Amino acid sequence: MADLFGISTSALLAFQKGIAVTGHNIANASTEGYSRQDVIFESAPGQRVGDHNIGNGVRAGTNTRAYDQYLTEAVRSTGSSKSQFEIAEQMSTRLIQLVGDSESGLAARTSSFFNAVEDLTNNPTSVAGRQVVLGEADFLSAQFRTLGSQLDQLEDQVNLELDVVLSEVNDQLSSIAAINSAVSDTSGNVSGDLLDKRDTLVNQVSERIGLLVSTQDNGVVNLALKNGLPIVTGISAGLLSSERGEFDISETTLNLTYPGTGVNDISSATGNGKLQGLINFRDGLLHDTQQRIGLMAAGLTETVNAQHQRGLDLNGDFGKAFFTPTQIPVLGSLNNTGAASVTASITDVGHLKATDFSLAFDGTEWQLSNSSSGASVTGTGPLTLDGISVNISGSAVAGDRYEVRPTFTAASQMSVNISNTSEIASRNPLLSSTSATNSGTSEISAVTVSTSASLPLTADLTFTFNENALGAGMPGFTVTGATVGPIAFDPTVDGAGKTIDLTAIMGGTFTISGVPSAGDTLVLSNNVAGVGDNRNLQTLSGLSTSKTLLEGAASFSDVFASAVAEVGIQTRQAAMSRETQTSLHDYAMNNQQSHAGVNLDEEAAKLLQYQQAYQAAARVIAASDEMFQTLLGAFRR
User: pLDDT tens across 515-561, in order?
Assistant: First the structure.
């Protein structure tokens, strides 16, 4: 009877545990990261009685946790990629909202400005028309500044988000290390709930930063970055932090501080995850957009200024800079120990690139390098490369470095430099005319001034046609008013138009066409009284579509359109990648949950099974008690 009591009692205890574990599964069916637990039943060792072995019932072993390393790793890796592309899509969507407004954005404002200039050509002395030009210029400058400020704010948001994510990761790493400590103290008898909590934390970390996960024999997990740097080893956890960039306070770098390895810059070692998505967006698409918008601003500023300064305003003075000239920031490294002074300026906006430049001193000479293409020049200065010139003074120390940013902040600093409508330089500084006594059809046209350095003319330039100007049978024009030899012109060859370059004399070029007669004269003179002249305005308005940027390959609108297109393309790519990674992550999650998740139907069946087994064991106890009482009663007789 004692054996029967023991067998039935062991069954009661075992199935009671089974019911408890099943109830625990049901209660946590919706708990994130919970892994199904199972009870392993095993037969208790039997007892030999005579020639027979009599069983001693059942016992419930340690709870097992449904876990598969490879399925769990698939969830982590796909979760990292999903998180990276989710944040990339979110940030690039914000960016496209800033730059993609076709009605009130830069493209529309730029068109409005040049349309106002073109309208002014119809009546160049109109005060109202000039006021419209200034108003549109103000609107355009304000739009550039607003967009530049918005892009800066977006970068600040990215940096703030980086700090939030770093704080979250640090808390999670500390918790993982604490659980490791608890796991190592249990000598292998670890609660499945505790392991689930740790796995959930590891998954959360992997969504933010790419991980390498390894498990020791005692159940402790170690975490490392994709480059092998440890961030959790046993009960020790690293600390992630952000630090201002070497040159720019807004371009923070990510550091890992870990015992034994010191401080490491991990900005390019975070693998997949939210952190990498934020860094890629900030240092990639966002900075590229800021550079391109800045190139448009600098290009428009310098090109319009250059042409405006070649014309005359209503006061007869050469125009001044229409927009405030672009100032190029030069940022010194935090590690510099020298006392050099570095300045930079735009020398040829047509060769300017939408990129930064690095400047480094090796102890003997400087090297200026394009940060994108790698093209470089060396010397003691000034150094000229890709449309900029860098001047250095003062003493430097080997290893000193600077960053030159010709376009990065150009949009934020754009403003109108003139305030009086009379200061708009509408007319060409030179006027062409033909003598009333000419009998031929020759004329001067297309007078283009590229520099005002030699203007105004000290005397009129008179061109007289002579059939033997350059020798017998060699026709051309002799020139008076300047020291310059005869200009070859053969009416039979050049009658359709020949461009004459006299930049050193009159600051530009002009075209002679037609068939002159001997003695015919053409004159270039200072445009003193031509207040109604609109030729400089015509040239200014033509800049709207001129391919003046990127080595003559792009107009202002082309640069802006390429920036918007690139943002649109990368936004779409991020969305497609996010969709793909979400599908892969869902697939990995389904596989993992099919193995480790709680199926309520299965648990209900188990509950019924254990309940029936428990009731049966109880009946065995009742039957054995009845048998025992009967046996006792027999002895009482």
Answer: 999 999 999 999 988 888 999 999 999 999 999 999 999 999 999 99
What domain range includes position 56? 2-66+598-636
Q: What pLDDT, on a 0 to 100 scale, did the predictor assign at position 595?
A: 85
481 contacts 460 by C-beta, under 8 angstroms: yes
**Ordered DSSP codes for 288-321:** HHHHHHHHHHHHHHHHHHHHHTTSB-TTSPBP--
Which of 497, 526, 555 is the endpoint of a domain? 526
Rg over alpha carbons for the chain, rounded to the nearest Å, is 41
In a domain, 610, yes or no: yes
Within-domain flag for 139? no
What's the structural domain count of the chain? 2
Are 329 and 371 in contact by the 8 Å Cβ rule? The answer is no
Inside any domain, residue 479 = yes
- Whether residue 104 is predicted with pLDDT greater than 70 in this model: the reply is no
- Residue pair 305/323 in contact by the 8 Å Cβ criterion: yes
Residues in the chain: 637
What whole-number distance in Å separates Cα of residue 303 and Cα of residue 321?
10
Query: In terms of DSSP bridges, do strands 58-60 and 41-43 run parallel, antiparallel, or are they unpaired?
Result: antiparallel
Q: What is the pLDDT of residue 58?
A: 83
Q: Which residues contact 507 (CB under 8 A, 6 or more apart)?
A: 310, 429, 449, 450, 451, 452, 453, 454, 455
Identify the residue whose tokens are 């250059």. 306
Determine the distance from the C-alpha atom of residue 392 to the mean position of all C-alpha atoms in its chain, rounded to a whole number.
31
CA–chain centroid gap for 463, Å, is: 58
Confidence category of residue 249, pLDDT binned at 50, 70, 90 = confident
Supply the pTM of this predicted model.
0.86
